Amino acid sequence: MTYSTLSIRLYSKSVVGFALTSATAASEPVADLNDMAQQCGPYRLADWAKRHNLDVFYVDNCWVRVPVSQSDLTKFARDVLEKPDIFKSINTDHDDGSRYVIEAEEF
Q1: Which one, 29, 47, 71, 74, has the greatest CB density within 10 A?
Q2: What does DSSP say about strands 57-60 and 4-11: parallel, antiparallel, or unpaired?
């Protein structure tokens, strides 16, 4: 049986030690989307990111992280999850250059 996870995490390039390809990297969770993980696994996330010219970081072949802006989150919600308003509740007070990471894994 295959299990999937999908989440949004806070990401800032100024955070030392948060290498997006490291399995041990940790950051503050912003949204747990595991109930929608079947809609967007790592391959679909990577395909969507590439179509939008976003960087894709592989922790392994079934674990992907994509750093995004708030507007990218809105596009992801609309294009992939088909729920354009799902991220309106995310705190957007991070105007200091902070970004988010969409993370999808299958195991």
Answers
A1: 74
A2: unpaired
